[in-house]
Amino acid sequence: MALVTPEVIAQVARLARLRLEGPDLTRFTEQLSEILQYVQRLQAVDTERVEPTTHVLPLSNVLRKDEPRPSLPSDTVIALAPAQRPPFVAVPKVIET
Amino acid sequence: MSYEPVIGLEVHLQLSTSTKLFCGCLAKYGAAPNSQTCPVCLGLPGVLPVLNERVMEWGIRVALAVDCQIAQTMKFDRKQYFYPDLPKNYQISQYDRPLAQRGHLDIVADHAPKRIGITRIHLEEDAGKLLHEASQTESYVDFNRTGVPLLEIVSEPDLRSPEEAYQYLIELKAIIEYLAVSTCNMEEGSLRCDTNVSLRRPGASQFGAKVEVKNLNSFKAVKQALAYEIQRQAVALDQGQRIRQETRLWDARALRTEPMRSKEGAADYRYFPEPDLVPFVIDRALIARMKATLPELPAERRRRYQDAYQLSAYDAQVLTQHAALGELFEGALRCGAPPKPAANWIMGDYLAHLNAKNREPESEKLRPEWLAHLIQLVDDGTISGKMAKDLFVQTLERGEDPRRLVEEGGLKQIVDAAALEPIADEVLRKNQRSVEDYLKGKTTAFTHLMGQAMKLSKGKANPQQMAALLKRKLEQVPS
User: Fold this and answer.
1) Among the listed residues A61, A12, A81, the one whose alpha carbon sits nearest the alpha carbon of residue B43
2) In this structure, what DSSP letter does residue B363 have?
3) Of A63, B171, B221, B431, which is most buried with the most CB atoms under 10 A?
4) Is B439 on the interface with A (CB under 8 A)?
5) Cα distance between residue A10 and residue A16, in whole Å
6) Per the structure, how many domains does chain B have?
């Protein structure tokens, strides 16, 4: 039983900005299906009386005071990017039209 | 055919905390580009975001001010998309467990009171800022804004006209200003607004396909864009076309909306719980503490102005739109100014001045005692009403007490009869024609004589006294 189709894989790849073509598409479709089938075994567990869990740590309300801490120097930051035009990071032209 | 517009608004509010939402970088506007970032807000590997306590407190204050139900537990989620202003490739936001839900805001539009529902209020981080000038091939990114705390306030689709949408925004902005949690400056982007609008036949229970309009840079733009969009959709429906569910951008120069190409294809944000931030249990004691810190809000202040100072509903509305106007008004009253003249000066000359200079009342340095002094100078006859108008402009432009300006500039009105006499005499001597005309019964000639007298006194003669004096002298002229 195929849980995912090559179309779904293509869509996920597009969302993740991955280039997947031809045999790769087939290979990942099979692999991801197997993984999902394995995970599907969890469906057998009765969760009727279990609260949904979003976090596994017994922690809540981790807060900090609104107090400033030093930032990184501007040149250090823009040097991390593939392209720069100090004091900015340069990216391919994007304009919303 | 006639249609009923159905409008909802999404307001993004930058909170003016000292630091960002999840890190200690300053959240200050206008700093040198890329000088306020760190590994947390840049999303470098291995970092841990920690929630700013003040953001939660201020969020609760806003939620209480619009009567929302505050969540017992809230959590954060990742909203994932790629864009060059988003260094982590996801935005930390709140999806299914927001800070607050189900509130409302009362407005008055077209003389009718109306309650507008608020669907939800949630916390999220801002993205960086893209600059598009100077190059055909590149855009530039400033990440200072990345991670600045935002409060998103979503209204129910309860608004039925551009005017109602406008009034909702005015009232919401006033409330936020009173709470002093944001600068609410649309030009600087600390308050942003998107709107959804659809049309349906009156009485229909189903909504039509909704169009989202973005790029609204002022409240006026919201009103104009909605009016345009309502018209556009009505024409299309009349022609039997179907309205496409889409996002459009407002073009403030061409005064029209255009489809936004980059949003084609349904967005797929794949929200999931943010693993780096544990849930937050909102203690009832914290809510009670925040409730106790709420200031008097605009609606309450409006009622008080009407009850305590006998101001009209309209006057009270204008004076409470900006927290600063109300403070000026009450400050002037504390310095002895009577309510109605103080209200009139603020609503008339002062607002006209602010509009002409395109300034906000917060940035103006008019001290309440100056306004009180000005009113007093008119009341005790030191200056005329007309002189007061000029003096008010001087006060604003020079930033000085009108009392001092009067003493310095010799603006004082001439009320001394001995000083007025020679002026009246000279005017009558030099304007024989008008005197004759007046005596022949041509009353308009008097206006001319009065004008000459005021001119000769450089506007300083007390007009009532001068008029009486001239009339007395004219009666004495032998005919």
Assistant:
1) A81
2) G
3) B171
4) no
5) 10
6) 3
Shared domain check, B441 and B395: no
Q: Which amino acid is at B106?
A: D
CA-based nearest distance A8→chain B, Å: 13
Residues of chain B neighbouring A62 (CB-CB closer than 8 A) = 50-51, 277-278
Asked whether residue B452 falls in the same domain as residue B398, the answer is no
Q: Which two three-digit tokens encode residue B223?
A: 């009103």
pLDDT tens by residue, chain B, 479 residues:
889 999 999 999 999 999 999 999 999 999 999 999 999 999 999 999 999 999 999 999 999 999 999 999 999 999 999 999 999 999 999 999 999 999 999 998 888 899 999 999 999 999 999 998 767 789 999 999 999 999 999 999 999 999 999 999 999 999 999 999 999 988 889 999 999 999 998 888 888 889 999 989 889 999 999 999 999 999 999 999 999 888 999 998 999 999 886 554 556 888 999 999 999 999 999 999 999 999 999 999 999 999 999 999 999 999 998 888 999 999 999 999 999 999 999 999 999 988 888 877 777 788 999 999 999 888 887 777 778 888 888 888 888 888 888 777 666 666 667 778 888 888 888 888 888 898 888 888 888 888 888 888 777 777 778 888 888 888 887 65
Which amino acid, one-letter code, is at B284? R
Contact of B406 with B383, CB cutoff 8 Å: yes
Inter-chain contacts counted by CB atoms under 8 A, chains A and B: 137
Q: Residues 258 to 287 of B: which have CB under 8 A from any A CB?
A: 258, 260-262, 268, 270, 273, 275, 277-281
Phi–psi pair at B343, nearest 5 degrees = -60, -40
Q: Please tell me the predicted confidence (pLDDT) of residue B58.
A: 97
Contact B37 A77 (CB under 8 A): yes
Q: Do B18 and A68 touch (CB under 8 A)?
A: yes
Binary contact (A15, B36; C-beta < 8 A): no
Which tens digits make up the pLDDT trace of B91-148?
A: 999 999 999 999 999 998 888 899 999 999 999 999 999 998 767 789 999 999 999 9
CA–CA distance, B285 with B466 (Å, rounded to integer): 69
Residue B328: strand, helix, or coil: helix
Distance from CA of A81 to the nearest CA of B (A): 10
> Measured between CB atoms, which of B19, B32, B73 is closest to A66?
B19
Is B61 found in the same domain as B97? yes
Tell me, yes or no, if B39 comes closer than 8 A to chain A by beta carbon.
yes
CB neighbourhood size of A60 (10 A): 12
Nearest CA in chain B to A93: B138
- What lies within 8 Å, CB to CB, of B474 at 6+ separation is B428, B435, B438, B439, B446
Please report residues of A whose CB lies closer than 8 A to that of B31: none
- Give me the count of residues in chain B: 479
Task: Clarify whether residues B163 and B235 are in a common domain.
Answer: yes
Domain end position, chosen among B290, B314, B334: B290
Task: Kindly state whether residues B423 and B402 are assigned to the same domain.
Answer: no
Residue where a domain terminates, one of B248, B266, B290: B290
- B444: domain CATH number is 1.10.10.410
Write down the domain spans for chain A: 6-44
Quote the domain boundaries for residue B432.
Answer: 417-476
Interface test with B, best of A64, A67, A78 (most B CBs within 10 A): A64
B122 and B253 fall within a common domain: yes
B240 and B122 inside one domain: yes
